[in-house]
Design a protein that fits this description.
The complex is a heterodimer of chains A (188) and B (280).
Chain A lengths: L2 H9 L2 H13 L8 H5 L10 H9 L3 H6 L11 H5 L6 H15 L5 H17 L4 H12 L3 H15 L16 H11 L1
Helix pairs in contact in A: 2-7, 8-9
Chain B lengths: L1 E4 L10 H13 L3 E4 L10 H5 L3 H15 L6 E3 L2 H16 L1 H11 L12 E3 H7 L2 H9 L7 E4 L20 H8 L3 E2 L13 H4 L1 H13 L6 E4 L2 H9 L7 E3 H8 L17 H7 L2
Parallel strand pairs in B: 1-2, 1-3, 3-4, 5-6, 5-7, 7-8
Helix pairs in contact in B: 1-12, 3-4, 6-8, 7-8
Classes of the chains: A mainly alpha (188), B alpha/beta (280).
The structure holds iron/sulfur cluster (SF4) (2 copies).
Chain lengths: 188, 280
Amino acid sequence: MHLTDIREKLAARPDLTRQLAQVKEQVATCIQCGTCSGSCPNAGFMDMTPRRMWRAVLTDRVDMVFSSQTFMLCASCYVCTLRCPRGLPLTGAMAELKQVAFGLNLDRFKRSTLFYKAFMDNIRQYGRVRETEMMARYFLAVKDPRVPMSYTGMGIKLMAKHKLHPHLPTWGPGRLAPLFDRAKQQER
Amino acid sequence: MDYLYYPGCSLEGTAKEYDISCRALFEALEDRLTEIPDWTCCGATAAQCVDPFLSVVLPARNLALAEKTDTGLDVLVPCSACYLNLKKARQDLWENNALRAQVNQVLEEDGLAVNASVRVRHLLDVLTRDGAVDRVAQLSENRMKGLVIAPYYGCQCLRPYVEFDDPEQPRSMDALIRATGADVLAWDMGAVCCGASTATTKPQVGKELVGRILDQAKTAHAVVTVCPMCQMNLERFQSRSVPVVYLPQFLGLSLGMPAESLGCGMNLSDIRPVLSRVAP
Ligand code: SF4
Ligand code: SF4
């Protein structure tokens, strides 16, 4: 179902295609021993174990790779990177798969995409993360009342401990906007 | 000793007691922390997920500010995620001249320049290697005797950069805990991941991982942490009540510092079992 969709989207983005090729190169010497899967604290929650993910990358099964949630469940604990007998930079490779997935703007990762976008906008605007306002903007962006509900209990607890500080939103160009814009130019 | 201090965003919000207790503890130990003036976010988890270049630029800005103080002091970072971001940027910029030149063109916008000479250190590294153990031992008078403490390290202060401890069987906290008179729980969950930010998006992951960790801490009076994300997960996903305190809170209490001066009213877990030992 997603196959043509993902391949087409990738074909339209030579930069992401290149990045995926780099990931493939990074894991090129994988011997499929399974140490990474056996070490991963989140393997039980993944639809595909890390070992199988590297296999899919190496055999160019982009449909399998990006139909999976596996890399989204990587908590960056660095245990697989530490233990891989081939010394492969696996945590970094998982992070790159996240980057490609977000770059492709796949529907499946829409919520995470919006969350990270809200986060980056918050940094651009204030320089530091204002947790309360970031969450408010994220909730507005997802437009799904169930999402804010699931955070309410936590929010009340934090409020009671005086840890959430509603700031008035500040308008204007943004504290780190010049830096962000310059970085964008530089990347091209 | 003196240090430059990078608190990071969590310590201004959900981990405020970590900031309060760090500052108070270092004052009590007669070390000076100078907050990096005008610091900004290190990029957290977000930048590395969506924008690899910004994930270097954002920490680089803070390294540049640290260098600009011209003090030559080490940068002390209490948050493990900030620590890894700053440390990684520092290493990458140090090794890669082309990247450094590219980043400096961006930082110019802010009148800054980075040369990546500054040393980035985690709070635990500083506490275990710069003489704090002896000073705590002198000042604590074994105040924490009778308590059994489970040291929880998490991931990113230990891995991938192996700086001050074994990345899978860490021991560095043991000496600090013993210096207070307390005993250290012998367990093997201290370096097992709590789910980090995946627990925020997928709560069932946090529940299960934290459950496994806290199950092994049943015989301990409290768990001690060195990261806001670990602290948040361990406090949030409890199926039975376990006191979880930040290491500087615990050390401060052992020195007889008042609980309020260490932000002890702000923990989300019930830490009265620890407090009652020091102020019955
Ligand atoms: S541990 Fe390394 S070599 Fe073994 S399967 Fe995983 S990636 Fe491949
Ligand atoms: S770094 Fe990611 S993939 Fe590797 S073991 Fe940890 S959670 Fe699993």
